[in-house]
Amino acid sequence: MPPPIDAPKSSKRLDPAEVSLAGRRILVVDPSQSLPRALRGVQGASITIARLAMIDAEMLARVSPDVVLAPLFSPGHDILDLARLLDRLGYQGPLRAYSPPLPNTAIVCAEVRQIWGGRDFDILEVPPSWN
Length: 131
What we know:
Elements lengths: L11 E2 L11 E5 L16 E5 L6 H7 L3 E5 L1 E2 L2 E2 H11 L5 E5 L5 H12 L4 E5 L6
Parallel strand pairs: 1-8, 2-3, 2-4, 4-7, 7-8
Antiparallel strand pairs: 5-6
């Protein structure tokens, strides 16, 4: 069993040295250009990449993700759309958005948490040089 995914108190910059993904099942939804560098070449993790339209109860049961990761904004939808879908499907695990640094992540987090409730959500700020 992989170690628990800590529930951050606020958004933080993604530091590849701090990312321990060994043994995790990660569902990456609609990665914009490519995966953040922190996920490239990760060993010991099971990474499933899917489009938003592919996600249903059967897929979630099959993948059984430890964490769902998606860009904050994707063409045609954003993290709020994904949060609504995951909520309808009963997903209870952590949800992480990644984004270039934002001026005020607290506002975005508050908006997502209105949909996501008390479940684990955070934004990982990815410097442009890490994409």
